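Pasting as-is:
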Amino acid sequence: MARILLVEDNEISRDILSRRLRKAGYEILMAGDGGQAITTATDQRPDLILMDVTLPGIDGLEAARELRGRGETAGIPVIALTAHTLPADRDRALAAGCDEFESKPVELPSLLRKIEALLSRQQH
């Protein structure tokens, strides 16, 4: 079972998405801000990270940059989650080291396709 780190500061959104992902067969780790994301990713080494972009303290893009710069977390795929959906927002997320981009509100079938694609690419 793949382990996903869900980084989301909104408790309701985190709860809803985590339940949907568990139902899809994933083990879910959670963090509420960028600092917790870095610590949890470093300590737990999830298979994939879902990173909200707008977070208190260290934002999601800075956390992604930090994770990419660390040897032990550099290879973990990151999907940016954001309500900001302009092409420039996607470009910023990809430039920060995110592998994919999903707009909020999250459409689960789309997100699951991206998760599966990144996990299968990581296994090969």
